[in-house]
Each structure stands twice: as structure tokens, then as C-alpha cells.
Amino acid sequence: MSADQKVQSETDLRVKLDINNVFAEMIGQKHGLQRKELFDFKDEAVKAHQNILAAAEAGEMGFMELPHNQQEIVAELKQTAEELKDKFDNFVVLGIGGSALGNIAVQTAINDPYYNLFAEARDGYPRLFVSDNVDPEGVKALLAKLDPKKTLFNVISKSGSTAETMSQFLLARKFIAEAVGEDRVGEHFIATTSKDSGYLIEIAEREGMKKFFIPDNVGGRFSVLTPVGLLSAAMTGVDIEQLLAGAAYMDKICRENDFWQNPALVNALIQYLAYKKGKVMSVMMPYSDRLSDLADWYRQLWAESLGKEVDRQGNKVNLGPTPIKALGATDQHSQAQLYMEGPFDKIITFLEVENFAEELEIPKAYADLDGLGYLGDHNFAELINTEKWATELALNKRQRMNQTVKVPKVNEFTLGQLFYFFEFQTAVAGELFNINAFNQPGVELGKNYTYGIFGRSGYQAKKDEFENSAQKNEDLIL
């Protein structure tokens, strides 16, 4: 492919942002933004952008490096997948939060919706299971369905002390050891962890496990384009080079200094101004089953990054927009009533697929029935996007702020763009809100209480807090 052809191909597949419906001329003066507001705050957004780029230069924005510095890792991941895919029927990810949601989003977006059910859908690759909770019924049910001799586990934990993941690992290790013997346990596990510290790297070396590493400067919710997400993608036949190529293309766009040429920068400011205007709920509503789990991934990214008690100066601010997942057209019949007529506290981001991979006609029948016959000679892609356009117009009529991310088609290249777009937008939003978008002290507090209650060494104070906390009133348990 020539350079001109490549540029044309990238341009054809560029993800775009339509922000018409956030402005007053579309939804009215009371709830819409004025363009002047964006101009007035543009310098703040540009400064936030400069801060992000400076932090990247200093090596503090690890997610921005990922599209460019993983050639050797990608080659190793692909080789590993090629060597192992015929040896195992099942590939099981043990991870939680950022170690699971991205994996699921990639699988749902790229592979056949019934990938696990039919061998022809897998084309020689193993089934994928992501075990991301410690509900005993779910964990036991999964292991009961698997042949241990034909199952490969990927344990993902940067620290190797994540209680949920490591408890599952201990059970999975027993499951494998009883089937193949202690000396062969390592053949059935791959560890994805920190290179230089933590318990999991020590375990992996003891057991002789294959290892992949999470960069120290990449947090869990930003890790989908590291081996955290790329290994399971490669093990299910996803083109991980195209995922990273899409992210690299969006990185180039996000580095653009011209405010109006940088959609992630513009959208970070829109989300910030919407929040200031009382739109404290951020709804993501894909009109595509393939992008449904991307909205789950976004929920963690947005909530954990921006929900903070204190700002960078230590002032108590208790801020953060609440992310909500919806699915079009499904949730037109469940959530849309609230969005249309409830509080004016939401900004809705639609994901619209312009070209679906499949064409499916609606058969023509019952022409004499006015309420049914009109559907014939149309197709399902027309229907789902018409449903989106109709919902968009209805929201406009009710003065509800909404915008659309347009996806030319769902493939690895556009999915890589989407991951990077929302990650960069989140980083800029953190700057605008004047908070640290890359820590999660609230999550850590809950973890520490769990460690204490379970008796982990060094957490006795947390156990004491739990045991001395206020007792519940039995009269209030109804």
C-alpha cells in the first residue's frame, strides 16, 4: 500500500465527533452551551493539553506511549498465540476492573457474537472466558465446565496481591495441579504483571510461567492496549497490530495543538462545561451490540479517573461526573423515558456505526396492515440508525444535551481509535477539573479494609476499624 493509499484508508476510517446538539441553537438557551463559552474556556483547555503533552515527554503518560513502543511485545504476543492456540480449548482471563473490561470490550467488538458457542466462529482459536468476580456460584460453575488439561489461564495483577484475582488463581492452580501434577502447573498459566515487583512475578518465576509485563506508568483502567488486553485479543484471532495502528492514528489527532482540530480536547471541555452546567451524568449509548461493552469499559475509565474527593491542592471538592451505560435501541424501551422527561442532569454520547458489517433485509409482508407493512423493503441497519436519529431529534426537542461519536465501521483500527480517544479525553478532563485522574484512593481504601478483615499482615488497624465500627440496628433490617 502506498503512502497516499494509507492516508486515504485512515481518513475513510477516522472516528469523528458531532457536537451540534450540545449548543443552544439546537436545544435552546437554557440547557445548551453557547459557542462563546467554548471560546472563553479554550485557553484553559489548551493549557491542559500542553500539560498532558509535557507529562508525556516526562514519561508520566504511559498510555500515550503504547501505540508506538510495543513492536517486540506484539511479535511475542502473536508468536505465543500461534504456539498455544492449538494446545488449549479454553483461555481464561483472571482479572478485575481494568484487567477485565477492556478484554471483554475487544472480544465483543471484533469477534463473532457467538464466538464461544461454535467452532466455526472461532476459526481454530480457543474459547475465551473472563472471570472478573468472586461470586462462588459463578466461579465454581465455570471451572465445572472446563477440561483442566485443555485450559490456559491468564492471571492479571500488577501487584500480585489483588484479593479477587489471586483467590481465583489459588483455586485455578489447585484445579490444574490435581489434573496434571504440581510440576506442570506453569504450563497452564501466563502471568501478566509488573516486571520488577509484586508477588505474581515471584510466583511466575517459581512455577515457570510465561510472563508479560504491564508498564509501571500505565494504570489498570488505561491498560487495554498493553498485554493486559492484547494477549486475550491475540489468543482469539484479533489483529492487535491494527488495534495499535488505530490508537497511533488517534494519538496523532490528539496531539494537534489547534483546539478545533482536536476532538478529544474539544470534548473534554464540553464534558467539563456540561458538568458545570449541572449535567453531572455522562451517558454513553452505543447503537451497536458490538460496542455495548465499550460503554462498560468507559464507565470505569470515567468514574475511577474523575470521581475524586480532593483537588491537586488537597482541597475537598467531592466532584466527578457519573457515567451511565445504555444500549440503543434496547434502552429506548427502558431508560429513554428518564432521559426525555426526567432531570436536566445528563449529557448523552451516542456511538453511531455508519456501515455495519452485515446487510439484513426486513422481509415485506402484511402490506394491508398500516402498522406493519411499512417495514418491508427496508433493512436492519437502516432501522437501528433511524432509531438513533429519532431519539436524537426527540432529545433536541426536549432540550437535552447530546452528541454523537461516528464510527465508520467497527474493526480493530476504529476500536483502537475509540480506546485512545476516550483515554486522552479523560486525561484532559482531569486537568480541567484540577484533580489527579490517575489515582484511585477510594478504591484502595476498600481494598485495605478487605485485607484487614481477612487477616493480611500489616493491615491490623483496618481490621480493628471494622470490628469497632458502629453496629447495625436489627430493627432497621426489615
UniProtKB/TrEMBL annotation:
GO CC terms: cytosol
According to the UniProt entry, its GO molecular function terms are: carbohydrate derivative binding; glucose-6-phosphate isomerase activity; monosaccharide binding
Group of enzyme by EC? isomerase
Q: Which CDD domains match?
A: SIS_PGI_1 (cd05015), SIS_PGI_2 (cd05016)
Give yes or no: UniProt keyword Isomerase: yes
Kindly list the places in or outside the cell where this protein is found, as annotated in its UniProt entry: Cytoplasm
Catalytic activity annotation? alpha-D-glucose 6-phosphate = beta-D-fructose 6-phosphate
Q: Does the keyword Iron apply?
A: no
Which Pfam families does its entry note? PGI
User: What pathway does the annotation place this protein in?
Assistant: Carbohydrate degradation; glycolysis; D-glyceraldehyde 3-phosphate and glycerone phosphate from D-glucose: step 2/4; Carbohydrate biosynthesis; gluconeogenesis
The record's keywords, sorted A to Z, are: Cytoplasm, Gluconeogenesis, Glycolysis, Isomerase
Q: Where is the active site?
A: E304 (proton donor), H333, K447
Please give the biological process terms from Gene Ontology that the record holds. Answer: gluconeogenesis; glucose 6-phosphate metabolic process; glycolytic process
The enzyme's E.C. designation? 5.3.1.9
| Source species, domain of life | Bacteria
The entry's family comment says:
Belongs to the GPI family.
So what does this one do? Catalyzes the reversible isomerization of glucose-6-phosphate to fructose-6-phosphate.
State the name under which the record lists this protein.
Answer: Glucose-6-phosphate isomerase
Q: What is the lineage of its organism?
A: Bacteria, Bacillati, Bacillota, Clostridia, Halanaerobiales
